[in-house]
Amino acid sequence: MRIVLVGPPGAGKGTQAAFLAKNLSIPHISTGDLFRANISQQTELGKLAKSFMDKGELVPDEVTIAMAKDRMEQPDAASGFLLDGFPRNVSQAEALDEMLTAERMKLDAVLDLEVPEDEVVKRIAGRRICRNDSSHVFHVSYKAPKEEGVCDVCGGELYQRDDDSEETVRKRLEVYHTQTEPIIDYYKAQGLVVTISALGKVEEVTERAMEALKREDDDK
């Protein structure tokens, strides 16, 4: 299957993408991973992207599109892929359609993870990270440490990242609503959108998504 995963920040896209890709035996293609791989390998596209990032500028769509195209042409993506973070806007969605049409391929589904805005803020603004080891992550509501402000694992200080403040989260949501959400309407016009609730336990959301994708596949 060829799937695009969309949803607001805090919807759990990265987590669900990993599980879904494993269950469907297709590669998980994340925009973040593409940038990191190209920059670390110092590819021409990586150098170009870094030149913009070093100036604090957004990487142009054409660079992101070229990275995605290169990754989708790898042998492991021949039978399908799951795109996470791409396309990020309608112009990228149009470019993806052109790419797939040129290769005589098409998307099978666009999986929209739906989460209420207040829940997004609660999920992200409640995160606390250990200063000693950023892999030690807690949450004031869902995974509270035994002692407030102290990491259960190493005793380090827990803090809230600037990116996780409520003000920043709401700004990120505004960007999502303005830039990314319009692609849902774009794909709805093609009859590709499958919307599921991203509330509940991780495994429940994965099961919900797999069932929805199976129904979509069966209907075709």
TrEMBL record:
Catalytic activity annotation: AMP + ATP = 2 ADP
Region (NMP), start-end ranges: 30-59
Pathway: Purine metabolism; AMP biosynthesis via salvage pathway; AMP from ADP: step 1/1
EC number: 2.7.4.3
Annotated keywords: ATP-binding, Cytoplasm, Kinase, Nucleotide biosynthesis, Nucleotide-binding, Transferase
Class in the EC hierarchy, top level: transferase
Molecular function terms from GO: AMP kinase activity; ATP binding
Subcellular location, principal: cytoplasm
GO CC terms: cytoplasm
Residues that hold ATP according to the record: 10-15, 127, 137-138, 200
GO annotation, biological process: AMP salvage
Annotated positions binding AMP: 31, 36, 57-59, 85-88, 92, 161, 172
Annotated ranges, domain Adenylate kinase active site lid: 127-163
UniProt subcellular location: Cytoplasm
Comment text on domains: Consists of three domains, a large central CORE domain and two small peripheral domains, NMPbind and LID, which undergo movements during catalysis. The LID domain closes over the site of phosphoryl transfer upon ATP binding. Assembling and dissambling the active center during each catalytic cycle provides an effective means to prevent ATP hydrolysis.
Summary of subunit composition and partner proteins: Monomer.
Similarity comment: Belongs to the adenylate kinase family.
UniProt-recorded name of the protein: Adenylate kinase
